[in-house]
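FW: tagging you since you asked about this chain on Friday. Here's the raw sequence from the shared folder, copied in full. Didn't touch anything.
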Amino acid sequence: MRNRRPRAFTLIELLVVVAIIALLIAILLPSLSRAREQSRRTATLGHLHAIGIAMATYSSEWDNRHSTDLADGNEDGRAFSGLALLAKLHSLPPKLFINTNTTDTPATAFNADGWPILADIGGVPITLTTPATIDSSNIASVKWHCSFSYDHERKRTGNIDQMRVYLGDRADYAQGRSFSANWAGAGMCVLYTDQHAEFIKTKSLPEQQDPNLYHHNEYDGEGATEVVNNVSVSPSTIDSHLRFFSEEEDDALLPSP
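HL: got it, structure written out here
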């Protein structure tokens, strides 16, 4: 019998194979992308829950307060340093303060007290007083080592025992928008006072009558005219005023609503 050479693929057959591979890639890539995002979302919610467990321990030791280094006379000051305090007291790894779907990097530097540096400008740590102001002139230079905004204040009005958000994805400071940009506008990861973490799709919290969890809403006062998703400020509003810097700085950087 004669030896026969294996038949080679024709050009048309090769093109068909390439087209099938390209079609499979086009079908699979969106699914893989969604799976990666879901994995990052799950990881971020896990980070928030771990912080919440530490916060619950802190609260049990400090009369149900959330961690802060702000004096009563400066309770509207820069909020994020309270998270650095919590990290030091409970030996929390810096990676817990990172949303895994961002370019934020975990803190690698610590201050003299052993607190992680959660934000800096040009390598200089941002503190309660340095720089004097965070505004449009320097916000773009901030290096973020914490992806979350924080509300350390205890509520003094309404049903103070009602579950509320006190930690969640940082607002979009780069674009001056009071909504997280971390999930392409689809929603944000938040932590409630019962320490469960959740992905929510709006910055308004109807169950708290809170139209904008990034702004401080005093009834018949600051922010009282805010209406988001048909949720408006009322006497029963329980604010979740998530912020990173001071109340004054955040309100200027993140115009309402």
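FW: The radius of gyration is 24 Å.
HL: agreed, and The helical segments are 11-61, 81-89, 247-253.
FW: great, closing this out.
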